[in-house]
Structure formats: structure tokens, C-alpha cells
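Input:
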Amino acid sequence: MTGLVPISVLGTLILVLGIRLVAQSRNRRQSPAVTVDDYANAREALDSVFVETAAIRRIFSVEDAEFVARSGTRDVKRLFCGERRKLALQWLRRTQKQVAQLIDLHLRLASYTFDPSPGFELRLTAKYLTFVVVSNIVLLLLWLLGPFKATRSISYTIRTASSFCTTFSLRLERVNPTRLSSGRESLVH
Amino acid sequence: MGKAQQAFPLHFYGTITHGKLLIVMETNVIWWTGTSVTAIVLIRGALVGLLRKYPLFYAYISCVLLKEIVGLLSYQFARNFYEPFYWPSELATIVASYAVIIEIFRQSLRHSPGIARKAQKFLLAAFVLTLSYAATDLLHGQFASASRAIAELGRDLRYIEGALLLVMLWLFVRYRILLGRNLLGLIGGYSFWVGLNVVNLALWFLPGNGFSVFLRRLLPITYVGTLTIWCLALWSSQPEPAQSAENAIERDYELLAAKTRAALARTSERLVRVMKP
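Output:
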């Protein structure tokens, strides 16, 4: 019975990947060939998402929210929050789409290279997956809390994570390697 | 009737004495349909010139057709010969189906020299590993009959084939390898057949599994389905997808990797900066 599970998984994976391959090839019929120019354009498009940094920061600006909260009516506040949320979601989705396109082009171009590195590909996949997970969490927070509360929560998380990292690296620095090795020796003997 | 006999994909149920005439008719129809579609695939391949393009695949199809014709003739005219013929011929067909794997590998990765080289090593390692596992299994097994031993060897070979196909499919999906309509149909049909066959074989060797009886009856139909996919996909010769010119693609992986890594790092950094109030 234990042998049945991996074999069934193997069979199912073959079917799933087969269907995925057919669907993927059908979708790409319109633009089959890929060039370095496409890749350069994708990089430029990704950079362009952040070109108007001041305008993007404005979407998440707490000062604007505070100003509207002070002087606006309830309807204005609701309209303001709704529009900022929409803008924030649109911007993040666009960023996700551009990153996905860049990775897609990278992989397609990588298939033509003479010496692709599986190690780097694995690391890149891990980084990309992390980006996808984190950006989706941010997307969910933006959708649930709106841009202002979401930024506060995200900023709090970033601060906590960096203070944790700092504490951890300070502790590591304090560890005396000579004492550590002598301790290990005493454990052995 | 032994398990080994029952597993025949296009099997004639010999026990007409039980009054299962309908099943016999159904199986006859499937068998004849399968053989006819196999012949059509081969004839069309010869007519449209795909036979020269995919010689290994058509060699496999010829092997299957030959086996089916000999099986049909022996069943009609020399039944004593049918049983000893069935299992060795089934094993030979499974071995021949490895030609399809080689054909898919050869045709798909023609324009991807780096991936082909890496994949070759990986596939070879997967092949050696699974083959040694199957050999150990075979050596330690105690078989009641020669047909049972052949059946189990055939099953193990199918598992190895499944593992190799899975690695290749993953590579094609991961690197978005460009495939023409003919090759895509060939791979699609083959994945459908091997995937279902692997699941079926796993259940079949599980003692007392009632579901496997149903799957076993479904298997000949899935093979006819596979042949139909191949027939449709290989009906005419389709042009290969246009490849980019040599000066329009990047051959240096290090350079490409560095650019992507930098772009991804820059994006993450900017995202964090924007989100910080």
C-alpha cells in the first residue's frame, strides 16, 4: 500500500504536467520567439513601475489620510480610501505582472544558453516564490485593511524583523569561536 | 484466468461460457478500432512525410501494429500460440516505447543545447537509479510463473518510463520550450497514456483492489484515446515554431542570470522602500 502512493503521485503528476504543457503552448502561439530585446523591454517596464516613486509613495501617504480625516465628510473619507485602495492594488498587481513577465522571459532565454546553472535557477526560483508569497500577502492586506493601515502593519513587521535580525547578528558576534571549539573538545573527551 | 492474462490492454475475454458476449463484442470493437487507428497513424505519417521527421516514434507505432496483427491472427487461427506470445510481445512493446522518449528528447531540445546537456545527465541518473531499483525488486521477487515475472518487469519498465517522462515534462514546462503542433500532440498523447498506465499498474498489483478491475477495463479505451490524439495531431505536417535569430538571443547564462538577479533585488528593495511610511 505504501508503494501505491508515490506511483499514483507519479502518474497524476505526468497527467497534470502534460495538460499544463499543452495549455502553456497554446497560450504562447501568438508570440513564440523571444529575443534579448524583449527581455530588455521587460526590464525597462519593470523599472517604469517605480519611476514615479513620489506619486506611488503618495498612494500610501498617511498625511493625506489624516488631512481627509480632519476636514472631509464621511462620504469623502470613504471615497478617498476606496480610490487609494484601488490605486494601491492596481500598482502592486502591475508590479507582480511585470516581475512574472521578466522571469518568464529569463527562463525562455535561459533555455538557449550554453551553460545554464541549475543551482542558480533553484535560488532564483526560491527568490521569486518568496516575492510572490510576500507580494500576495501585501495584496491581501491592502485589500482587507486599505493602504494606510496595511502600510502600518507592514512597516511594523519590517521593523520587528530587522530588529530580530540585528539582535541575532549581535549575539552571533558575541559568540567566541575559540570558546566554542574548546567546549566542543570537552564534549568529545 | 491469471492476473497476467487479464492485464492485456486489448484483451479478448475468452470465457464466453459465462455468457459475457457483450463484453467480448465490446473488447472486439476496441481491439479492431485500436489496430485500425494505429494503421491510420502509420499510413498518414508515411503520406505527409512525418515518418522521416519522427522515425523513432513511427518505429514504435510499427512495432505496436505488428504485435496487434500477430496477436489478432494468432487468436483467430492458433490460440495455443496466443498465450505464450502475449507477455513477451507486451514487454517488447514497452521496451520499444522508450524510443518515443528518445524521440521527444531529441526533437524538443534541438535548439536548447545547454538544457539538453544538463537534462541528459539528469535523465541518465534517473534511469540508472530506477533501473537498479527495479532490478533489485525483480531479483528478490518470487514469481509463480514466467508470465508473472514478465508482467512485473514490464510494470517496472513503465515506472522508469514514467519517471523519465516526468523529468522531461517538468523541463519543458519550466523553460517554456517551444513545441510545434505535431510534437505537442505526440507528447500530449504519450503523457496521457503513460500517466494513466502508471496509475493503473500501481492499482493492479495491489491485491484485492476492486477499483483496479474497473481501471483495467478502461485501459484499452484510453489507449484508443491516445491513438486518436496522435492521429489528429499527426494528420498533417505542421510548421515548426519560428526560432529567434542567433544574434537576437543570449547565449551567456552568467550575464542573463546577473541581470535577472539584479532586477529582482532592485524590485524587492523598491517595494519595501515604498511601503515604509
